[in-house]
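Tutorial, part two.
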Amino acid sequence: MVEMMDITSQQLSELIELRQVRNLRTIFDEYNLIDLAEIVEQLQLKEILFLFKTLKKDITAQIFTYLTYEKKQEIIQSFTSVEIMAMLDNLYTDDIVDFLEEMPANIVKQVLNSASAEQRADINLLLSYPEYSAGSIMSTDFVELEATDTVARAIRKIKQQGKTAETISVSYVISQNRELVGTVRLRDILLAETEDTIEDLMDVDVISVKTHDDQESVAHVIKRYDITVVPVVNDENRLIGIITVDDIIDILEDEVTEDIQKMAAIMPIEGSYLKTSVKEMTKSRITWLLVLMVSATFTGTIISGYEDALLLIPALAASIPLIMSTAGNAGSQASAMVIRGIAVGELSVSDYLKVIFKEVQVAILSGLVLFAINWLRLMIFTPETSMTVDLVISLTLMLTVVISKLVGGVLPLLAMFFKQDPAAMAAPLITTMVDAVALMIYFNLAVSMLGL
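Running the prediction step on this input gives:
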């Protein structure tokens, strides 16, 4: 038998061509399906279809969830209704919804027509919730018990429902009208006496989320309470579904990707870098580039207004890049820390005074250090300039750092106050704003202190 690292798409193709069904089944039984799915992705469609008809249905269903949306679409289009139904029987509801959301209408219709009435109802339920809400990412496959169940009866229910449940580590206790009244861990059930009731074992202090809660808030709940699964209830506290930690990891990856794109002045796009078309990539970047280009004209206007001063003292012009870059860097540092604090739930709008106070302290200390080092630098490398010019440049540097850090710290909170994404108030926008402020401080100091 070959090692996993030795298995290639070419070897799988050869086994498929030779119809080595036993060897194929052995490979997919023994090795990690996530790794194998990456190899299957490289096969031709006819080879994948042969695999799906040969391997166990639960294995093919797992492989299907790890394939790209393009490959999933090809497979579904080639399947018969019976084959689609068999696939759906081995997929969790949230996984079905995940790929349906990316599929064209004809594929969605084909899948829904092949689904059972119960599956169709669950799929339509999840698709009806707003995008990025808890309801849109939850699974309706879970174990439910009643408070009056004995341990023996609960174990029988877990065995029965656990075949299709997303997790059996936690079971949910519901009332007759499906209100969530408690949770019970599998460990507690297994260690209890058979005649004990679930009511004696369950935890009534239930941590749950609502169907319309934002998916980011769900991630914060799971992180805060250190849990691996959270129940989803409606406004009447009736249990609708569950969200597991593996779904949260996917959400966090998407959210971080979106925040990074916004912080780089890119309109959020879905899909990987290599698979995103040049047209889409350009559209995502050009808007902010145009906005920043237009806003940068203010900087040019300020400089042009002081051309006479720059002609009289050329040393002032030489320091413009230093002052502008320092201003942008200082603002970016502050905004990055505040955005991170907001993202992990450490900061809110009500903390704006604390942020201002801290950033002022950091800015003054940083500004004093830069003031001293820059003055020393100017005296050593540009001894021909006067002490007053050195003072103007160094003082501008210090004041710029103070203002830039305040702007960088407050703007993300301001965006949060107006229900906007704080990540949008990041480096490019802040840099453009503080550049203009820095130049105004610089030239006004130069005019007043040098008598220009």
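The chain has a mean pLDDT of 88. In part three we will examine how such features are distributed along the chain.
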